[in-house]
Sequence to fold (402 residues):
Amino acid sequence: MAFIVQKFGGSSVANAERIWRVAGIIAETYSEGNDVVVVLSAQGDTTDELIEKAAEINPHASKREMDVLLSTGEQISIALMAMALEKMGLPVISLTGWQIGMLTNSDYGNARIKKVSCDRIRNELDKRRIVIVAGFQGINKYDDITTLGRGGSDTTAVAIAAAMNADLCQIYTDVEGVFTADPRKVPNARKLEEITYDEMLELASLGAKVLHNRSVEMAKRYNVNLEVLSSFVRAPGTKVKEVVKLEQTKISGIAKDTNVARIALIGVKDEPGVAFKVFRELARHKINVDIILQSIGHGDTQDISFTVAKSDMAQAVQSLQEQQEVIGFKELSVTDKIAKVSMVGAGMVNSSGVAALMFEALYAAKINIHMISTSEIKVSVLVDESEADRAVQAVHAKFFGN
Ligand code: ADP
Ligand code: ASP
Ligand code: MG
Fold:
């Protein structure tokens, strides 16, 4: 007997037929004698639809009220799933984030988990009930509802698995595991049998939305036994773990992120303190900066460009423009028709020339690179958004063949 946390994403519970299929998976796990905690996302596109509904009423709704609204999607799923299992004659109970004591900070819309009080779940498991938990939602110290950021149900599942020392945390989704690239965009992408926490964390942070990046961060910290697999096809998925068997390839995957905007400050004074003034201003507004490029000075000026998340673009532009005199730049240009394409692989550390192969693939595909950034296990390039899918395919073909 084991303690298993199973998370099912939105497409896995999108309609009645799929709810029954998932109920079958849960029932099977339970009837093998396991303790089962199930975490669910909102059905299909419910969360997007709720965001649209809010915009019809108030496009500038407060983040607090947005969270009250968005958390309802998951509550529908858990009730429906519990009803399905009830009908199958199984003992089951559905619980919201508040009921399981999922305590978060107060960063509405992107809250971080501080603690999961496991008492209620433990009590229900002791009664041999299947526990169905609403993903994505928590509660802060004011007893207000919070949400964990888009895709956050994965993190709910891993947090419960970590807090309760589960034997296994299974993330069921609409693809068979983690692939070398998004299988919907790159048809010959390969399923990985296993991947390290570090590589998965990079891929997730660089746009491979198959796992929420915070869920991977937490799985690594608490050494959670994590597996990504399909709720549609019963086949072994991808294991995410600390160390994996040595593979031939140096690259584990290619990812694309379109949530990027580039801001360029042109004609910045070439003198000490300028970068400080720019990034202090952004930090004041809690805006994260990703790739930074500073050009060589021409005359007594230089250019500084950098990327931020699309959602931060308007605020970043506004605050820099307000500080134009203080920072001292001639012009500001901005675009969000840009995307970041990255390749990730722990094998890059000890081998030279991997980045060159990526650049060669992009050159052969006649794709222009605007910015480059590297770390030990990844190389990212900024390209035009309209060319991003082609860039992913070209780089993927270079490393994994056509
Ligand atoms: P869920 O609703 O189950 O949480 P998501 O839509 O959040 O599912 O994540 C699954 C999707 O992630 C897949 O349908 C796939 O298109 C996308 N994806 C992007 N990159 C990858 C990758 N490297 N491997 C697998 N899936 C990926
Ligand atoms: N329903 C939420 C979303 O669409 C959380 C999740 O699916 O993980 O982002
Ligand atoms: Mg998801």
